[in-house]
Write a structure and sequence with these properties.
With 236 residues, the chain is α+β, with helices and mostly antiparallel strands. The protein has helices spanning 19-27, 52-55, 94-154, and strands at 4-8, 12-17, 36-39, 46-47, 176-183, 189-195, 207-213, 218-223.
Length: 236
């Protein structure tokens, strides 16, 4: 059975429909004798009246009038006649193509978003950890000043429990769990702060060392934390 198409308003293709549906549309007044139709094997689009006998429709035969063209908006200066819809060919409809384009676009957006997240999230986490170490370094500065003053005035490196200096745990605060005071492996007097940052393995249980060089009266900073999580003056 042939499948039929008709051009609604001679502009928009409708179908496919069986022959009886085309006849029913004519009898209901939805389409007229000059409506352009096409069916398999018909060649070009032709007015419905040319197929009246084939479809069993009672209408006079005659030449097809020019397709009606809806008026264009007033601001348009040149009238443009739209040709009848071409014979349908196998392929995707506009909706299907739009759906594919939208789906591909969505996949691209998701992929780009995933790439940006893969870059941005680790970088932001590194920034947060570096900020914690920087804050801990600033937190140790008053105690470092006290140690330097004790060395200058008393001539010896203080340790926890000396007058004016307390137990390691008494200096806990923020992300610092304890601070030891004394001489370390390089024989410099200094401070050893231990981090307590649950859930952050890059910092939790690690140390930040401040060493005082009496020859230059300067402090240096080092750590067993990865360089990317340290402020620049503590790296290496």
């Amino acid at each position: 059975m042939s499948q039929w198409f008709y051009a609604e308003g001679n502009r928009e293709r409708r179908g496919p429909l069986p022959a009886e549906n085309i006849a029913a549309l004519f009898r209901s007044g939805r389409i007229a004798g000059d409506t352009l139709v096409w069916r398999e094997g018909a060649g070009d689009w032709r007015p419905l009246r040319d197929f009246a006998a084939e479809l069993g429709l009672d209408m006079p035969a005659g030449p097809a009038p020019e397709p009606a063209v809806p008026p264009l908006p007033p601001q348009v200066q040149h009238v443009h006649v739209v040709a009848p819809a071409p014979a349908p060919r196998p392929g995707l409809s506009g909706c299907a193509i739009f759906g594919i384009v939208a789906a591909v676009g969505g996949l691209i957006v998701v992929a780009v978003g995933g790439i940006l997240a893969a870059i941005a999230v680790p970088a932001y986490n590194d920034y947060l950890l570096r900020a914690k170490v920087t804050a801990a370094h600033a937190q140790l500065q008053p105690l470092a000043a006290d140690v330097a003053h004790s060395l200058t005035t008393g001539g010896h490196c203080p340790v926890n429990g000396d007058e004016g200096f307390h137990s390691p745990e008494s200096y806990a605060g923020g992300d610092i769990a304890a601070v030891r005071i004394g001489r370390f492996g390089n024989d410099h007097c200094g401070l050893e702060a231990r981090f307590h940052v649950p859930g952050k393995a890059a910092l939790d249980g690690k140390h930040l060392w401040l060493d005082y060089d009496t020859q230059t009266a300067t402090w240096s900073c080092s750590s067993d934390v990865a360089d990317k999580h340290l402020p620049a003056h503590c790296r290496g």
